[in-house]
Amino acid sequence: MNRERVVERLEASQRILCSCHRRPDADALGSALGLSRFLRSMGKDVKVYVPEPLSPTLEYLVEPDEIVGALAPGERFDLVIVTDTAAPSLLPKGLPSDAPLLVIDHHAAHEPFGDLVLRDVEATSTGEVVLGILDAMGLPEIPPKRVAEPLYAAVVADTGGFRYASTTAKTMRLGARLVEGGAEPWKTARNLFEEWPPERLRLLAAVIETLALELDGKLAILEVTREILARTGADDDMVEGLVNYGRMLRGVEVAALLWEFDVQEGDRTRRDVKISLRSQGTVDVSTIAVALGGGGHRAAAGTQLQKTREEAREALLSAVEKALS
Ligand SMILES: [Mn+2]
Fold this sequence. Notes:
Blueprint: H1 3-12, E1 15-20, H2 26-41, E2 45-49, E3 67-68, E4 79-83, E5 101-105, E6 116-119, H3 126-136, H4 145-158, H5 169-180, H6 185-194, H7 198-208, E7 212-214, E8 219-224, H8 226-232, H9 244-247, E9 254-265, E10 268-279, H10 285-291, E11 295-296, E12 300-305, H11 309-324
Parallel strand pairs: 1-2, 1-4, 2-3, 4-5, 5-6, 8-9
Antiparallel strand pairs: 7-8, 9-10, 10-12, 11-12
Helix pairs in contact: 1-3, 2-3, 2-4, 3-4, 4-5, 4-6, 10-11
The chain binds manganese (II) ion (MN).
């Protein structure tokens, strides 16, 4: 573990840019916010850079003007940090390349990049990795609320609310500590999991209708088509988490969600299919995702294919069949 080297580098840096992977989730953003707020409290000049709109579920974490969406040309930093980022292709657009890059992550499937990497695959979340760094830098036993709240959101999101197999007694103690610091469990759960716009429930109803059970009921497939999104008035942000409904079924070992996704390429649009995968526990879905060119964790993984929905479905079926045999 090179936590000491990371701490040394953080202490030696004054102008720091903190960012996270594209389409940030609560772990990515919460880790960046918790880290940047602590570093700022040490007197450092820290900017948080997220060059795309945030999911509305995460807005409650962010203070006014806390995030910048653009950088001045030629702006210089001593250190650039990205949290929860498992591959260089997931880096946000416009990240300065002339400063050393520190990568903080917990993904098992990780494509090495950056100048300094702190990755702990045992950690439930990048938020937990950040907490370890802050402890080494003198975070009080009861952390300040502004640091506790985003890190708590990170842990809650990546453990499914302290439910997944990654949750241990240590995770619970960590949660207790962040709550002692002022993180609010109901506020967090409500914002992350329950503040649905009506379109999202309509999307769920339409997606449930697509359910198909394959491979003797061991594989559940759900689909999100552009037609469904248009019909229900839902947008892409609302698709997150729908795959979990497939995993709820008795006998299902792997749940998959096929999601038609438009990618802007210059002035034309390409239609890809994203595949999200969830395991009930026995199958390592990261191996399925890697076989399909993606990555992730044992219980949650994904990939993106330049294929039609039908082709993606065929590729998925054969990859899952292989993993089940
Ligand atoms: Mn994460």
